Amino acid sequence: MATRTARQSGYRAKARGRQAARSKTLKGLAKAGFTARGVMYILIGWIALLVAFGHAPASADNRGALEIVGSTAIGMFVLWLLAIGFAGLALWRLAQAIYGGPNAHEHKTSERLLAVVRTALYAFLSFSTFKFALGSGGPKSSNQQSADLTATLLKYPGGQIAVVLVGLVLIGAGGYLIWQAWQRAFLKTLQTGQMTTRQRQLANRLGLIGGIARGLVFAGVGVFFMVAGVEHNPGEAKGIDATLRSFAHAPLGPFLLALIAVGLVIFGGYSFVEARWRRV
Predict the structure, then answer these.
(1) Closest CA to 98 of 89, 107, 85, 90
(2) CA angle at 223 for the pair 181 and 257, rounded to the nearest 5°
């Protein structure tokens, strides 16, 4: 009898959890989160574009983006909105990890594991943005974070292998993002039936170009982690900022960086599309 009662209580708890995961409040927070992500990517892309043309107003990563927002007249208000948006997106991703997403493929184990990783990422972004808004200091630059992580891992036996594995995972993630963008997999998560023809075409272009640019950056960061691991040198690990700047030294020079920067801005635009039409 006690076992049956416990089982029924568990079922009720799960049902309440699923109901909360599909609530209008959480859906609204998720949409706010996609909007916050869009703002962040547009700012990072804009900074990278300025770097390509010889200007460096801030680091081309989330720290630089927060510094730019904080320097405006309404910066404090926007910072709080961003922090709340990232917190909402973290909660929505957590619900995905536990109960699965609104799309059929998001119930797969692999997608739930990805949701766990995304939950941690957006929780960190929310926490660091809240700290910045409170004047407690912003997050370290992505370059410093990468160097610190590499240095920590290299202190332990097998650290070199771990750093190389981190690099391989990031390269794989970048390749996966590029493949998803090329296959237009993102369209499966959008309510395309509610779009006009022009809106669908716009979403398709933004998701394709933005997704490829985002994937290239992830893969680039991964390459530097691999180099740092092989050479046992934390200084070789790069964050988003240094990775973007490294594109300026590629054969196509600043032109390549400018293209990727525009792609990141475009991905920011696609995030707004998700805020409006994504199934949540």
Answers:
(1) 107
(2) 60
Q: Taking a C-beta distance cutoff of 8 angstroms, is the pair 80, 132 a contact?
A: no
Q: Taking the CB of residue 83, how many other CB atoms lie within 10 A of it?
A: 22
Encoding tokens for residue 37? 């992500």
Cβ atoms 195, 226 nearer than 8 A: no
pLDDT tens per residue across span 82-135? 999 999 999 999 998 888 877 767 777 888 888 899 999 999 999 999 998 888
Residue that the structure tokens 């180099």 belong to: 227
What are the residue boundaries of the structural domains of the chain, listed by start? 62-137, 141-280
CA distances from 17 to 25, 32, 115 (A): 13, 21, 17
Cα separation of 78 and 66, whole Å? Answer: 10
Report which residue type is found at 162.
A
Q: Tell me how long the chain is.
A: 280
Residues sharing a CB contact under 8 Å with residue 243, sequence separation 6 or more, in sequence order:
217, 220, 221, 224
Find the angle CA(104)-CA(110)-CA(114) to the nearest 5 degrees.
Answer: 100
pLDDT tens track for 148-174: 889 999 998 889 999 999 999 999 999
Q: How far is CA 214 from the centre of its chain?
A: 9
